[in-house]
């Protein structure tokens, strides 16, 4: 077909009409070395060059040096010189400096004149479109991992992005099978064989896959396997575009595991924006004693009583949720059997694709036992607070009383010290009394001795009086010796002292009245009688005095014993008073310490009460 065309061109070129038709075509006749021998007007127009400028020019001189050509020019021309017909796209430089992409058909000249016939088409627009497509493809694939396989899964090519993702070099994967990226347990599975059978039959496939890096670490990819066909529609291979979604997948898997864990341990429900229950998991249904069919589709208001304004509070809560604010706290919900369960809840508004809140997710846990315990703790705390207040008051009272007791003990100390001083003075007085009593006892003993001596003298006087009676009798017989008797009477009078004064008078009278012996004898007898009676009285009086003195002595001895005992008791009292004074002083110091400790205890109790209130408030917050 091409020979016919070229031959037609040659025939027309030799005729005027033929030349005119050929000028509309871009054609040229080239010498065997590649120089232009003849060119059409159309080619001159295409290249914006004069014919004269082209004739004799090597067609390879038109090649744009800044562009990588589709083929190596010298190699192509060598084949053409060998008689091989070639079709090649070249980028030429036009006379105005612009680039022209041409598709050149080379074939040996059939006219016998030698050389090569060349027909040229301007494909600049097509090449620019292809270039734009290539650039867009390059831009698209620059950040996308791409790998090419044959229909059996053998690797034909892979870009750097893909190689970087899996950790291989290009020469480590090209020629290998896709299974090098698959975990060992999957390589020999029927599913894997069926996967490549489907791809080999031309079925595209897209999904998320778990693959294996060179170092054995897993990589999650989102891959799109696309069959590639040639111009005849024959399947030639598979192109796979890959996105590394490992981080995204791990986050998703983590999220899914968290959600699963959440559903295992927590009560979860989903609400529409108007508060209608759309889903409820088993934990929530169990807590509320509901069947799913009885709860799903109901408003949350069925779980709230209205006896304490619960539904009004629920309406306010949903107003908050619809505005996009989440809410956490404790709520009481009514169970199907009429009981009450306390829940720790978190209401979480969820926005849809439009950015508007379209549902609310509830996550809850049963805190009924904790609430009951807290309520008991609150009651206990209130009771403890009252008791602490009472303790503080009691400590304050103890402090006040200890202050008063300290003052009283100080007064008692002064009193005891005064009593101790008085006891000491009393002991000194008793010592003086004991000394006086001892002296009195000595005096009594002396008086008893004197009384005994007086008794002896009285007895002697009585005997003397008796003797005088005999003497008086003898006076009458012995008148001649009267002077001697008078002398004797004088001597006896001197011996008798005061008691013998009468005898002295008698003696004097004897001397003066010697002559009156007879009358005097009667008087003497009378006086002797009185003297004997007086002596008897003296003896009796002395006897009574002796008895009295003995009684007084006995009493003084008793008094002395009592004084000694009292002195000892007074000493013991004084000692006890001193000990008591020391004890009272110690008590006073102890009370002062107690008072100080009570003040500190009250301060610590006040601090403890403040800390208790703070902890209570924090625990209730």
Structure description:
- The protein is of the alpha+beta class.
- It folds into four domains: 2-127, 2-Layer Sandwich (Beta-Lactamase), CATH 3.30.450; 143-251, 2-Layer Sandwich (Beta-Lactamase), CATH 3.30.450.20; 266-366, Beta-Lactamase, CATH 3.30.450; 375-606, Methyl-accepting chemotaxis protein (Helix Hairpins, Orthogonal Bundle).
- Helix content is 59%, strand content 18%.
- A hairpin with a 5-residue loop joins strand 3 (86-93) and strand 4 (99-108).
- Helix 1 crosses helix 2 (16-22), helix 15 (368-477) packs antiparallel against helix 18 (517-620) and helix 16 (482-496) packs antiparallel against helix 17.
- Residues 1-23 have low confidence and may be disordered.
């Amino acid at each position: 077909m091409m020979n016919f065309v070229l031959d037609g061109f040659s025939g027309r070129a030799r005729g005027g009409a033929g030349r005119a038709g050929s000028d509309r075509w871009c054609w040229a006749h080239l010498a065997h070395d590649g120089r232009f021998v003849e060119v059409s007007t159309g080619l001159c127009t295409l290249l914006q060059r004069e014919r004269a400028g082209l004739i004799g020019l090597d067609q390879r001189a038109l090649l744009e040096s800044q562009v990588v050509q589709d083929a190596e020019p010298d190699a192509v021309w060598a084949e053409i010189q060998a008689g091989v017909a070639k079709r090649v796209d070249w980028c030429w430089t036009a006379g105005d400096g612009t680039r022209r992409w041409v598709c050149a058909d080379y074939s040996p000249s059939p006219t016998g004149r030698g050389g090569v016939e060349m027909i040229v088409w301007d494909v600049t627009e097509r090449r620019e479109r292809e270039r734009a497509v290539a650039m867009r493809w390059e831009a698209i694939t620059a950040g996308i991992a791409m790998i090419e396989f044959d229909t059996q899964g053998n690797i034909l090519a892979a870009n750097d992005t893909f190689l970087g993702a899996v950790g291989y070099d290009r020469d480590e994967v090209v020629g290998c099978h896709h299974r090098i990226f698959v975990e060992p347990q999957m390589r020999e599975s029927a599913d894997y064989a069926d996967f490549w059978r489907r791809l080999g039959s031309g079925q595209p496939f897209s999904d998320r896959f778990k693959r294996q890096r060179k170092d054995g670490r897993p990589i999650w990819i989102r891959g799109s396997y696309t069959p590639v066909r040639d111009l005849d529609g024959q399947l030639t291979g598979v192109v796979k575009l890959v996105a590394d979604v490992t981080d995204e997948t791990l986050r998703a898997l983590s999220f899914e595991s968290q959600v699963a864990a959440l559903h295992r341990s927590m009560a979860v429900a989903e609400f529409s924006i108007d508060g209608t229950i759309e889903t409820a998991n088993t934990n929530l249904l169990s807590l509320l004693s509901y069947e799913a069919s009885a709860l799903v589709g109901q408003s949350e208001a069925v779980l709230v009583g209205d006896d304490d304004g619960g539904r009004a509070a629920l309406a306010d809560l949903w107003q908050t949720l619809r505005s996009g604010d989440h809410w956490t706290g404790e709520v009481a919900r009514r169970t199907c059997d009429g009981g009450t369960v306390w829940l720790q809840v978190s209401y979480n508004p969820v926005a849809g694709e439009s950015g508007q809140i379209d549902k609310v997710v509830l996550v809850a846990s049963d805190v009924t036992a904790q609430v009951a315990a807290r309520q008991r703790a609150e009651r206990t705390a209130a009771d403890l607070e009252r008791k602490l207040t009472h303790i503080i008051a009691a400590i304050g009272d103890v402090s006040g009383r200890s202050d008063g007791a300290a003052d009283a003990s100080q007064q008692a100390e002064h009193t005891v010290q005064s009593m101790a001083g008085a006891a000491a003075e009393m002991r000194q007085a008793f010592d003086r009394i004991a000394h006086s009593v001892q002296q009195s006892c000595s005096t009594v003993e002396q008086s008893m001795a004197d009384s005994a001596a007086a008794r002896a003298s009285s007895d002697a006087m009585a005997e003397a009086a008796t003797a005088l009676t005999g003497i008086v009798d003898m006076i009458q017989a012995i008148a001649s010796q009267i002077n001697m008797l008078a002398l004797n009477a004088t001597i006896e009078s001197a011996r008798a002292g005061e008691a013998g004064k009468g005898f002295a008078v008698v003696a004097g009278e004897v001397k003066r009245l010697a002559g009156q012996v007879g009358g005097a004898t009667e008087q003497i007898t009378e006086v002797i009688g009185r003297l004997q009676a007086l002596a008897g009285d003296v003896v009796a009086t002395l006897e009574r005095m002796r008895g009295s003195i003995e009684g007084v002595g006995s009493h003084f001895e008793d008094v002395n014993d009592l004084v000694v005992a009292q002195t000892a008791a007074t000493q013991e009292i004084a000692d006890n008073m001193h000990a008591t004074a020391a004890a009272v002083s110690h008590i006073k110091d102890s009370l002062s310490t107690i008072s100080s400790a009570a003040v500190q205890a009250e301060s610590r109790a006040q601090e403890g009460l403040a800390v208790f209130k703070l902890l209570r408030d924090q625990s209730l917050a």
